């Protein structure tokens, strides 16, 4: 390419410029592979690029090197509505996928304001968010499987199946530093039949933020809950006149559901906001008015960008109850530094974007902008938030990572990166703080592992001492009593609730607490953790480490969507905390994903922060016999349920019965609609209380598990659609493909876990490149194999 052509690859949506040495437009996986292999051979930095719309310097070739543009890989390869899944190439633009799905009444929930320009590969690499995330979650909730080119040029398939490492999980949000994605399999959802939009004006910012908390406390769950401050309103109004009022702040709210459900929610919102003094309150009367209101929100960046030659877009997240404090602080800083700051916020997520217009040629203004920016980041971290909710670290936030991570935590992240890319070729100088991991000396011994027979630490420091002494003595750790000579551990003494914030809908709990006790506690507060597994009396640490299928997968997805953070002790006794009590957080690698479901091989989970949902009404359980149904009839029923926007939250087959669990908002209408579908299949279900039904099935599974233990048998666990969902020896089956348990290995499956008298085993015929990375990861986390026998 000529220099002028390279110009295109020298910038992104930040204001910096760095020239690459070369660029290649790679339109096939093979071309991407060749480019990576070449860079690996000659140790040349390689920067993956989608649309270049990132706001963190993520695609800037700061060390020169080769930019590989994937923007030309634009094919939508597969759409499977019944499985709620698409497979696309990485260059497909977010809005193109939405347009493709719209005629089928489906959508891809993550909707960054840049959806018309940003690529899905970029969305996945950044873990992007958008206004709809308050209800539907971020991009990471929708990444099922990936095809990638690894740093050494090998192709690899990162499966959706349960391997030791959640490959799609750790790769999402990795900002081009771990691998290049050449194919993405993403979850999609049926579009709710009705949407309502409401705009509420407020006399003050604190009043608007109070209303946000009140809406959440009232267990209304909007699909959009955006806040614009006065400065933003005054900037946007001349740009797009959508009827935004002249006031101190507005909330732009969208609700979705059935037509009746939307009417109900709008009228409840109207009443609530009226009581809180909102005025005016405008309900969009038609889709055109709703679109105009939304377009004005999306124009906030564009409008602010007209104020000065450059616009600095900040992106921090705080626990939602701290939003008012954070926004007030931004106003203080604005006054203190005498620099205008417009703030828009995904208020429901506690994610705010202070927008700072500035002139790069005015050194004094640049200095004030930078001071304001640094102060905002520091404050967000102090309030328990994140320095980036959705825009990523890139080069911009790299120096600020110490605000959230200590040296050990940064070193372990750097080691994870090295496990994927030992020569540091992929996007060097981005996303992960460049710490060379040092094997720290775990220090002196406080505990002799084999004495007492079962060690029950009562505090985190005691557990750390125990692991360090095991490291020192090369003693593998066993969970529970194994033999008199082994280091036997029980976490039952670590059973405290460390933090419960009903307003934020989060809880932080120690790993030894019994899951059923957690459920009881939450239900007393009208909240729920929407992950239910068959094991009835399991500790939280076991639940998070073992990777059981979520019985409510159909409505809430996998466990990982509901864990915001974990604290772990690694195999050298280092205490590492990743994640915070915030709904959006893309600071550094998504480390919690590495520990969830990894059977403790990468670290012992000490506590976790969970995201909760409202639990105002008890769930409804519908059951029906399946022995008269053929497999085809059953699959047709599953597909029909999967196509419903307001369908069930759980679906499983066990004991010759089909079981449907319905919970959450709009419960009665959902039950009626599901009954309708069942009627079409000639099924009249039996109603039961969901909580009792859950206890029953757990009791039944406990007896199956006891039999397995007595008879020395094996239970096999996997995910994926079974060709014949009713065939014995299936014990338990979620026929939408999200989980099965069998007494014999079902033949078509290569990836599965099994539980036998030796504990958990994982069968995972991974591509060789992934196997090598996994070995490096396990060695990094647990160099003396202390954690081989935990679960
Ligand atoms: C006006 C505007 C509004 C925005 N609004 C939002 C918003 O609401 N929410 C939000 O989250 N973001 C927003 N962004 C930021 C940006 O659009 C997102 O980060 C987006 O996901 C980037 O996509 P992209 O295709 O432009 O990726 P790029 O900018 O090209 O790349 C981003 C990162 O991903 C890596 N990458 C790209 N493709 C691949 C691949 N195939 N494999 C591996 N790594 C890859 C790159 O190396 C880089 O680190 C906005 C940006 C602008 C300019």
From TrEMBL:
Residues 16-191, 447-615 form the FAD-binding PCMH-type domain. Its cofactor is FAD. The keyword Oxidoreductase applies. PROSITE patterns: FAD_PCMH. It comes from the Bacteria. Keywords: FAD, Flavoprotein, Oxidoreductase. The keyword Flavoprotein applies. PANTHER family: GLYCOLATE OXIDASE SUBUNIT GLCD. This is FAD-binding PCMH-type domain-containing protein.
């Amino acid at each position: 390419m000529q220099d002028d052509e390279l110009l295109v690859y020298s910038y992104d949506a930040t204001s910096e410029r760095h020239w690459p040495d070369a660029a290649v437009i790679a339109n096939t996986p093979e071309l991407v592979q060749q480019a990576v292999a070449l860079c690996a051979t000659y140790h040349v930095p390689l920067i993956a690029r989608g649309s270049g719309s990132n706001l963190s310097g993520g695609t800037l070739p700061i060390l020169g090197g080769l930019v590989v543009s994937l923007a030309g890989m634009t094919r939508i390869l597969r759409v499977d509505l019944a499985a709620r899944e698409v497979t696309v190439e990485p260059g497909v633009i977010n809005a193109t996928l939405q347009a493709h799905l719209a005629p089928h009444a489906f959508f891809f929930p993550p909707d960054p304001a840049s959806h018309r320009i940003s690529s899905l590969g970029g969305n996945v690499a950044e873990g992007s968010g958008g206004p709809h995330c308050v209800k539907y979650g971020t991009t990471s909730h929708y990444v099922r499987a990936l095809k990638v080119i690894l740093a050494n040029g090998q192709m690899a398939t990162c499966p959706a199946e349960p391997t030791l490492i959640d490959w799609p999980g750790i790769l999402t949000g990795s900002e081009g530093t771990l691998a290049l994605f050449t194919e993405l399999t993403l979850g999609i959802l049926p579009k709710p039949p009705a949407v309502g939009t409401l705009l509420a004006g407020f006399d003050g910012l604190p009043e608007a933020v109070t209303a946000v908390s009140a809406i959440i406390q009232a267990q209304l769950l909007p699909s959009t809950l955006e806040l614009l401050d006065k400065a933003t309103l005054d900037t946007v109004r001349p740009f797009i006149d959508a009827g935004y009022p002249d006031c101190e702040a507005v909330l732009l709210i969208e609700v979705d559901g059935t037509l009746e459900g939307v009417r109900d929610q709008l009228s409840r919102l109207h009443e609530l906001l009226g009581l809180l003094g909102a005025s005016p309150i405008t309900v969009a009367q038609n889709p055109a008015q709703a679109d105009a209101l939304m377009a004005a929100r999306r124009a906030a960046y564009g409008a602010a960008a007209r104020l000065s030659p450059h616009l600095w877009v900040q992106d921090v997240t705080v626990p939602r109850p701290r939003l008012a404090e954070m926004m007030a602080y931004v106003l203080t800083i604005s006054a203190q530094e005498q620099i205008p700051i417009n703030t828009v916020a995904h208020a429901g997520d506690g994610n705010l974007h202070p927008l700072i217009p500035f002139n790069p040629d005015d050194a004094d203004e640049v200095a004030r902008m930078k001071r304001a920016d640094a102060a905002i980041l520091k404050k967000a971290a102090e309030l328990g938030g994140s320095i980036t909710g959705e825009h990523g670290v890139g080069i911009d936030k790299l120096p600020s990572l110490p605000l959230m991570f200590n040296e050990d935590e940064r070193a372990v992240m750097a080691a994870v990166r090295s496990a994927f890319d030992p020569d540091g070729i992929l996007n060097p100088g981005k996303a992960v703080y460049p710490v060379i991991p040092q094997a720290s000396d775990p220090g002196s011994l406080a505990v002799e592992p084999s004495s007492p027979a079962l060690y029950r630490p009562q505090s985190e420091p005691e557990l750390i001492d125990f692991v360090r002494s095991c490291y020192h003595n090369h003693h593998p750790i066993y969970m529970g009593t194994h033999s008199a000579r082994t280091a036997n551990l029980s976490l039952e003494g670590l059973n405290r609730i460390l933090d419960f914030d009903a307003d934020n809908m989060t809880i932080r709990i120690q790993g030894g607490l019994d899951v059923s006790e957690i459920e009881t506690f939450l239900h007393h507060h009208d909240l729920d953790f929407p992950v239910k597994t068959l094991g009835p009396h399991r500790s939280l640490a076991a639940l998070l480490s073992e990777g059981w299928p979520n019985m409510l997968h159909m409505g809430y997805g996998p466990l990982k969507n509901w864990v915001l953070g974990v604290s772990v002790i690694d195999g050298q006794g280092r205490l590492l905390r990743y994640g915070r009590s915030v709904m959006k957080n893309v600071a550094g690698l998504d480390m919690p994903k590495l520990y969830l479901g990894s059977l403790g091989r990468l670290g012992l989970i000490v506590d976790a922060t969970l995201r909760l949902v409202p639990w105002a009404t008890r769930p409804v359980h519908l059951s029906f016999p399946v022995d008269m149904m053929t497999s085809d009839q059953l699959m047709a029923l599953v597909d029909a349920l999967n196509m419903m926007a307001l369908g069930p939250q759980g679906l499983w087959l066990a004991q010759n019965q089909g079981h449907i669990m319905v919970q959450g908002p709009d419960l009665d209408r959902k039950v009626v609609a599901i009954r309708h579908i069942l009627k079409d299949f000639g099924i009249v279900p039996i109603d039961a209380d969901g909580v009792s039904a859950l206890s029953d099935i757990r009791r039944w599974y406990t007896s199956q598990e006891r039999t397995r233990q007595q008879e020395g048998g094996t239970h096999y666990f996997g995910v994926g659609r079974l060709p014949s969902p009713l065939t014995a020896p299936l014990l338990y089956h979620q026929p939408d493909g999200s989980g099965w348990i069998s007494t014999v290995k079902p033949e078509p499956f290569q990836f599965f876990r099994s539980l036998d008298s030796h504990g958990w085993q994982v069968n995972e015929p991974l591509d060789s490149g992934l196997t090598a990375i996994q070995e490096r990861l396990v060695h990094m986390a647990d160099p003396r194999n202390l954690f081989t026998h935990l679960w």
